[in-house]
């Protein structure tokens, strides 16, 4: 039955309103009233399932929605509700299928079309998204969001000319243009201008910027864009005036200072790494290194800027990148003395990038060693001025020793680094940074236990510092002291939850998951390790999912430039080092599970006899039973304590990951995002080979090797894999002739025809 009597039809409209107002319990009661009289009304049954979904009864929700569909398969409401259930569970592909069915029944339903377009953008199906946006625009041409959504779709597809046409058509249709600057209108105009800039015709972009100038609220963005366009058009004097104004506002912005240099035709030897979208690109004519004459002009510019902005660190730091020889020593001397006198702990971090130049590294070393000798003997940085002037504060020697220790650590002269850091600690035994640096030196020396002890000393000096506590936890995990690390980590987690370590998961502390997983992996505890690596994978899934609400919000609030930046960030999010590291470790774990299905021996078992191994495994088993008993006791305590929130971890050992029937398939799920987003990383293909060769997918394994070979033919791991592949092909007896021909063809391409068969 589809049609309801008037009374029940009105009640059904009311339960739809209850859903919109999030009155789920009230709506559920209304649905049950209708179903008492009409138990086979499909749409009401589906709505009941939707209410159950929002009341955390997922199984019942799916059951009722599926029943509703069986009763009324041609109802767009039933299909729409089914899609909403899948969408709530982040199953966007299935939700998209349900919306497609709903639109076949009611093709002009605005609500379904809106939801449909959001899923298409989430899945980056731009072509279909454009079609849906066109349909929405035809149905409601007066709605601004539909115009803007279509423009964004064309922009993301790289069709900037069509995006500009859509925005221009919308702007031409506006009757009430704000007379005063209006934020949302301003953002739309700036977005329009940014597309013109990306299209490459800077004169058109500049003319458009001039035409919208009076309507734009973000005055700084206008100036940044204008300077960028003027530079591209070789109108350097006009660009210089703008950049000088920007530097005056923010003299620590590297992009502004670099822009000023370029407007004066003075270029850095290397371009500045900056997140600013306004940073102008280096002209093709920029030299690889600055000439002596140009270097002199650049240093003169920075002398001028330092006088104008004496508190700017950038104006003091940037000349070090340009200066060479005696000029570098002069500039570095002033920078070092100022920082050591003030006690800047991050001095070495600021300087170490310069060590890529061996001459600058030697110059820095000579300067600080001279400072140390002079401070020790005369109390001043410069021994020549020892008879006049005030002496430096006692902390100057301390920070000099601190820098020298970091310098020797960076150059891996560990004994010297330890000697200097011990002298610094003897000078001021209460400074936390000294113990942290000592721990770092010991870590680089390959002494994780001693490094942990040094970091713990630092932690005990300041028990209220969360950063130092986290560092200490990391070092404990690297020393495989997992129990101590967990105890230390929970000092800064919530005390009112059942499992404090879950607080770290809720806070998406990926460093902890990675370090803990790697420690478990070293100890052969693959279940626990995989549990941690899957936590990292889930965090990245959550990051991707979090963008969903912005597809509507950003179009409504007109934060379009930020929205496009978000989409582009999300598109390459899984190339982040944390994800790459999790993939590497997870693949190794799954591969090890295939290679050693009986269990993975720990390092402690290497070199043991069979009897010793058996004894060691018995000891491990007893430890696991003890841990299980403690877990049960803890569970009972929490059940009896009403103040504790949440639940204990139901699978602390990660057994569900160990019990997987297809470990290589699980490894591939981790790897696929890298195959799509990071094909230029050789590790992507090396890890792919390890999976495919075990799955007996010889052509896929060969493709991985070919891609890796194209990136780095001399990679040592690749050479071993090539040999292994050749041996596996030679040993295989059931290779199809067509597959063998493809392999021989590619092998001949790599090593010549004479290599085939050998």
UniProtKB/TrEMBL annotation:
UniProt cross-references to PROSITE patterns, sorted A to Z: TPR
Disordered: region residues: 271-290, 633-652
GO cellular component, as recorded: NatA complex
InterPro entries membership: NatA_aux_su, TPR-like_helical_dom_sf, TPR_2, TPR_rpt
Keywords: Repeat, TPR repeat
Chain positions of TPR repeats: 76-109
Statement: the UniProt record of this protein carries the keyword Protein transport: no
Keyword Repeat: yes
The protein, known as: Uncharacterized protein
Species name: Actinomortierella ambigua
């Amino acid at each position: 039955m589809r049609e309801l009597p008037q009374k029940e039809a009105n009640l059904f409209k009311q339960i739809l309103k209850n859903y919109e107002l999030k009155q789920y319990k009230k709506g559920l009661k209304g649905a049950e009233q209708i179903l008492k009289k009409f138990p086979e009304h499909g749409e009401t049954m589906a709505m009941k399932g939707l209410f159950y979904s929002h009341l955390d009864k997922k199984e019942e929700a799916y059951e009722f929605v599926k029943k509703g569909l069986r009763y009324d398969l041609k109802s767009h409401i039933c299909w729409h509700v089914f899609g909403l259930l899948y969408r709530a569970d982040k199953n966007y592909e299935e939700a998209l299928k349900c919306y497609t069915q709903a639109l076949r029944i009611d093709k002009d339903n605005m609500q379904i079309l809106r939801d449909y377009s959001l899923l298409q953008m989430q899945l980056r199906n731009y072509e279909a998204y454009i079609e849906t946006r066109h349909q929405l625009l035809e149905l409601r041409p007066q709605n601004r969001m539909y115009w803007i959504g279509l423009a964004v779709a064309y922009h993301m597809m790289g069709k900037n000319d069509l995006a500009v046409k859509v925005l221009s058509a919308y702007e031409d249709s506006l009757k009430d243009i704000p007379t005063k600057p209006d934020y949302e209108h301003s953002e739309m105009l700036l977005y329009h201008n940014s597309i013109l800039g990306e299209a490459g015709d800077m004169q058109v972009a500049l003319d458009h910027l001039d035409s919208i100038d009076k309507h734009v609220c973000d005055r700084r963005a206008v100036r940044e864009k204008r300077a960028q366009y003027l530079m591209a058009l070789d109108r350097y004097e006009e660009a210089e005036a703008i950049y000088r104004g920007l530097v005056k506002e923010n003299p620590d912005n590297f992009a502004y200072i670099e822009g000023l240099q370029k407007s004066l035709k003075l270029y850095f030897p290397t371009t500045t790494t900056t997140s600013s979208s306004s940073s102008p690109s280096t002209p093709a004519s920029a030299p690889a290194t600055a000439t002596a004459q140009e270097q002199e002009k650049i240093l003169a510019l920075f002398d001028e800027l330092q006088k104008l902005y004496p508190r700017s660190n950038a104006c003091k730091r940037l000349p070090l990148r340009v200066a060479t020889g005696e000029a570098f020593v002069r500039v570095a001397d002033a920078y070092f003395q100022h920082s050591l006198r003030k006690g800047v702990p991050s001095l070495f971090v600021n300087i170490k990038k310069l060590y890529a130049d061996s001459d600058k590294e030697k110059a820095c070393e000579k300067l600080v060693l001279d400072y140390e000798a002079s401070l020790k003997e005369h109390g001043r940085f410069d021994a020549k001025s020892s008879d006049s002037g005030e002496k430096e504060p006692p902390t100057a020697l301390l920070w000099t020793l601190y820098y020298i220790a970091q310098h020797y650590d960076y150059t891996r002269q560990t004994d010297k680094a330890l000697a200097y850091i011990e002298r610094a600690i003897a000078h001021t035994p209460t400074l936390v940074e000294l113990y942290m640096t000592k721990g770092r030196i010991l870590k680089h020396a390959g002494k994780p236990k001693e490094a942990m002890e040094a970091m713990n000393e630092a932690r005990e000096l300041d028990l209220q510092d969360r950063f130092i506590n986290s560092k200490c936890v990391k070092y404990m995990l690297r020393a495989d002291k997992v129990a101590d690390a967990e105890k230390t980590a929970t000092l800064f987690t919530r005390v009112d939850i059942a499992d404090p370590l879950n607080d770290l998961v809720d806070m998406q502390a990926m460093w902890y998951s990675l370090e803990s997983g790697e420690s478990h992996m070293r100890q052969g505890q693959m279940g626990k390790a995989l549990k941690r690596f899957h936590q990292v994978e889930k965090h990245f899934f959550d990051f991707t999912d979090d963008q969903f609400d912005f597809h509507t919000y950003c179009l409504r609030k007109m934060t379009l430039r930020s929205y496009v930046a978000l989409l582009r960030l999300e598109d390459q999010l899984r190339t982040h080092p944390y994800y790459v590291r999790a993939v590497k470790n997870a693949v190794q774990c799954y591969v090890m599970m295939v290679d050693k299905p009986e269990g993975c021996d720990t390092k402690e078992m290497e070199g043991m006899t069979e009897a010793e191994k058996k004894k060691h495994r018995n000891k491990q088993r007893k430890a696991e039973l003890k841990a299980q008993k403690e877990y049960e006791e803890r569970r009972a305590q929490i059940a009896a304590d009403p103040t504790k929130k949440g639940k204990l971890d139901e699978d602390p050992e990660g057994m569900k990951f160990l019990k997987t029937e297809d470990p290589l398939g699980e490894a591939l799920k981790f790897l696929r995002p890298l195959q799509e987003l990071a094909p230029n990383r050789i590790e992507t293909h090396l890890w792919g080979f390890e999976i495919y060769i075990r799955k007996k997918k010889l052509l896929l394994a060969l493709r991985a090797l070919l891609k890796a070979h194209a990136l780095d033919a001399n990679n040592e791991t690749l050479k071993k894999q090539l040999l292994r592949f050749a041996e596996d092909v030679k040993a295989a007896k059931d290779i199809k002739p067509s597959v063998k021909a493809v392999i021989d063809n590619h092998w001949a391409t790599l090593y010549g025809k004479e290599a085939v068969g050998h």
